[in-house]
UniProtKB/TrEMBL annotation:
Keywords: Endonuclease, Hydrolase, Nuclease, RNA-binding, tRNA processing. The lineage of its organism: Bacteria, Pseudomonadati, Pseudomonadota, Gammaproteobacteria, Lysobacterales. Gene3D superfamilies: 3.30.230.10. GO terms for molecular function: 3'-tRNA processing endoribonuclease activity; ribonuclease P activity; tRNA binding. It comes from Tahibacter aquaticus. Belongs to the RnpA family. GO terms for cellular component: ribonuclease P complex. Consists of a catalytic RNA component (M1 or rnpB) and a protein subunit. Its EC number is 3.1.26.5. This is Ribonuclease P protein component. GO terms for biological process: tRNA 5'-leader removal. Pfam families: Ribonuclease_P. It is an enzyme of class 3 (hydrolase). RNaseP catalyzes the removal of the 5'-leader sequence from pre-tRNA to produce the mature 5'-terminus. It can also cleave other RNA substrates such as 4.5S RNA. The protein component plays an auxiliary but essential role in vivo by binding to the 5'-leader sequence and broadening the substrate specificity of the ribozyme. SUPFAM superfamilies: Ribosomal protein S5 domain 2-like.
Length: 117
């Protein structure tokens, strides 16, 4: 596997992982996305997504947002600290072109806390 893959170990998959994240997390936001994060025991970042029907009634639009978030995370994964991150798009994100959303996600990743060395 290449450095820019999205392996199973980099995903939040279990209901308990999401519950722990929602229970004790910090929040950051950008113009079109918000995120909740908390440190995990691993040294790798893990991604979870929550794209509800409130964002868009059309599954095609919700899936497009999820693909864009995954792609952006996949590119930044190795530079991110060991955090569990839940990304939630805002309704305004639906109508925007992909490059603008990717730029906004880059801003979101840059707001995550970096470990002290």
């Amino acid at each position: 596997m290449g450095a820019f893959c999205f392996p199973r170990a980099a995903r939040l998959l279990k209901k308990g992982d999401f519950a722990r994240l929602r229970q004790s997390s910090r929040r950051i936001g950008s113009r079109y996305f918000s995120a909740e994060y908390r440190s995990n025991e691993d040294t790798v970042a893990r991604l979870g997504q929550a794209v509800s029907r409130r964002v868009s009634k059309l599954a095609v639009q919700r899936n497009r947002l999820k693909r864009l978030v995954r792609e952006s995370f996949r590119r930044q994964r190795l530079q991110l600290p060991g955090l569990d991150i839940l990304v939630i798009p805002r309704t305004a994100a639906v109508s925007l072109p992909g490059p603008e959303l990717l730029a906004d996600l880059e801003l979101l990743w840059s707001k995550l806390p970096r470990p002290q060395r």
